[in-house]
Design a protein that fits this description.
Rossmann fold, homodimer, globular, PPK2-rel_1 (chains A, B), alpha/beta, P-loop_NTPase (chains A, B), Phosphate--nucleotide phosphotransferase (chains A, B), about 290 residues, PPK2-related (chains A, B), 5-stranded parallel sheet
């Protein structure tokens, strides 16, 4: 539990990083480590220990779905380039059984996708019962790059915030625990990470000239994110803004949010829906 | 390489476990560990070491797809209940970046799926470029349970072997490396594993009374598998029969097949398709 005595945290990310009324993105220090008293070294050990906890809870969560529990989790990951989405997928999500995970990377929409409402391509990828769904980028692109690059008329962008809230309310009503994460990277740290990708030939494949074009629009993206937080951080689908200059902090924070979500379900091993003694007898005779 | 001096194997699984002409399933000892001179203890260490190799190769494989390489891998997993498919997914596939993996579990077909040809529900799940696709059960169910339980007329079952070969040839022509694995479990070991699921309440969710019904048909399933091997082990899509009484052996063998497939691609880091110096300059100015 977030309230357990042995917590790593002075204040849990679920509390300290949650976007509430009056939240101001510009006030967040991207190099900070809110609520975590440790350093990189302790964070590595804490992440490994947390991975075991997460893994055990995820198995129990999945087990319940096999006996009819409809609950599911959706983690939405949004960030500027190099902020560390890939590392979250690899080092946090990668710790649990891949059978229990559904990752969808939303790229630039295809012409076919663009011919439909922006939520059309999203809906087929919402998680199944017992699954942890992860959106690597998401429907929020349509109010982020959509706004910054004016890919749709202003009135349409406006409409989308409400459409998103309605969509997410629908998911919440369908027993989805929604966790929306923005990895908040500083401009200097982004520059260093892009530089590294350019300096190391084995990292070139991760670089795209468009990354610099986007970087030049960072102030506009931050404005667009602020609007997203103002308009779409709801009790059913809250945003968490995670300072991301320190990768170890961001990973630990996302892991904590997921563990909290699972603990909040008060899971136990599902009870057999068959007659155990009868089946033992059948097995013995087989 | 399979031929590297430091190989763990006396004979690589890619050779010793491959189904060729004249293969007889009944001759396989489910408790054996073909080609591996070590024991459980060394296998655990070898699996961990192999996981790093596999992880590194998978990243390079994925990287190439980002620059246009169309190759993909499809691992088909077939087995009787408790044979260890889940453990392969967790401990072998789980070692690589989840972003590079597409797992599909094929359950009992829905009415909608049954209203179409048996390959209809399979096709949408073939792996994308740069991905390792895993079928947890597959189109082979339609000639296994399909045959054993007479879910389709004999002539239709016959037709399916050819349809499968045509389908897999199409995938191979589309740059898919196909690896088909049957985890071959002994009847006694299956009994022990089912017993454990019944004895431990936290394992009850993995048990289904139907598992015993299927167990009673094991001889018929083995006949059906033999026919599958006779009819569908092709140069482009070979079967590998892996003795599975020892989980550690089966995992090491599947990992070896995947590593071999990746090594066989002669991968290197992709070369940038942009002007690196120009981008460095742009970044510096940004």
């Amino acid at each position: 539990m977030g309230h357990a005595a042995e917590s790593l945290w002075d204040v849990e990310p679920g509390e300290s990083l949650r976007v509430g009324p009056g939240f101001v993105l510009a006030d967040v220090d991207t190099g900070s480590t809110p609520g975590y008293p440790g350093d990189k070294k302790s964070a590595v050990a804490d992440l490994a220990a947390g991975a075991e906890v997460f893994d055990g809870l995820q198995e129990m969560f999945f087990a319940n779905s096999q006996l009819g529990d409809k609950r599911k989790i959706l983690l939405v990951l949004q960030a500027m380039d190099t902020a560390g989405k890939g590392g979250i997928l690899r080092h946090v999500i990668g710790a649990v059984d891949p059978q229990g995970v559904q990752i969808t990377a939303f790229k630039k929409p295809t012409p076919d996708e663009l011919a439909h409402d922006f939520l059309w391509r999203i809906r087929p990828h919402v998680p199944d019962a017992g699954k942890i769904g992860v959106f690597d980028r998401s429907h929020y692109e349509d109010v982020l790059i959509g706004r910054v690059r004016e890919l749709a008329p202003a009135a349409e962008i406006e409409r989308r915030y409400d459409a998103i809230n309605a969509f997410e309310r629908e998911l919440a009503d369908d027993d989805t625990t929604i966790i929306k994460v923005m990895l908040h990277l500083g401009a200097d740290e982004q520059k260093a990470r892009l530089q590294e990708r350019l300096d190391r030939p084995e990292k070139h494949w991760k670089f795209n000239p468009g990354d610099i074009d986007e970087r030049l629009l960072m102030p506009q993206y931050r404005e667009a994110y602020q609007l997203v937080f103002d308009r779409t951080s709801t009790p059913d689908a809250p945003w968490y803004v995670i300072p991301a200059d320190k990768k170890w902090y961001a990973r630990l924070a996302v892991q904590s949010l997921l563990i909290d979500a699972l603990r909040g379900m008060n899971l136990s091993w599902p009870v057999a829906d068959f007659d155990v003694e009868h089946e033992k007898k059948r097995l013995a005779e087989s």
